[in-house]
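Researcher: Next entry in the queue.
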Amino acid sequence: MYLGVIVNPQARRNRAAPADRSAELRRIVGPWGEVHETASLEDLHKTIAELHPRVTHLVGDGGDGALHWLINEIQDCIPDPERWPTFVPTNGGSVNAVARKARVRGQADAIVRALAAAAAKDQPPPEGRLDTLQLDGETEDGAAFHRLCFGLAAGGVGNRFYDKYYANPDHNRTAVARTIAHTFGDYVTSKVSPGHSDRTNWASHLFAPTQARVVIDGEEVPTRTHRLLHAGAIDLRIAGPFRLFPKAAAPGALHFQAGETSPSRIIAQLPAALTNGGIRGSRVRDVNGREMIIEAEGEPLSPIIDGERFTGIVKLVAHAGPKIRVPQVTTKA
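Model: Structure for this entry, 333 residues:
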């Protein structure tokens, strides 16, 4: 075992961490690996290109977003997924759903400490494999677009939710509940007492549909407006009980959601949707599938991919990506 630990000093949690955080991680890793700070995507690209030949375990000091960038940078360096290192999420980000799915428990320092101890004994922890979602498409200037990810909110409610969620100073289950409560309250007020809401942009923004042509496994979704436009390779839990993509719980299953339904139906189904991840409607497709094609109509898409926003996308094709190896690390700290 040889560890590569990637620290982003600009990450929200790391900005609040002690100034010598990287030094502390180096002390924990000892001779069993390296710790590198990457303050930009250019830094990350150069670091991964230099580091990848010698690491067996690549540790992202962050959450889902950090893991996303590590996987995509490794793919640029090593086209063959079977030669990729084992990826280690560390519960250090705003959203840590992938770590929960991978059964990686504990705080970042404790996880790195456990891996260093395993390396010292040359006894790697048991591993599992996680499915990924591959996105291929095109940008508005004609360039090719490609990402590997776990979850996609291409438009609709899931996409717009992130705007409000990230506006909160803290990214936790309280922020999720606060965003939902504000949206619900604003919607109810707009119906009961129009013109008296002091948060008129909450519900109107969240429920604004996305214009797109969507085809799932060769069958076109019977609407060009979508309040649901999501895809997932694994089932995810965010902020405790809130569940996304439950139909992707089984290995190899992709979960696609697309279509149109009214804000009132979304509100009515919200409690169930937050715990089982599903919304019903006559023009909603909430299914397992092999491929989903999304073609923007009018405005380009600005998809949220593993919590990261990308802009200027006019076409996306979502299908199964390669599996990645993840260790099952449980710590007491």
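Model: The domain at 133-323 is CATH 2.60.200.40 (Tumour Suppressor Smad4).
Researcher: Noted, moving on.
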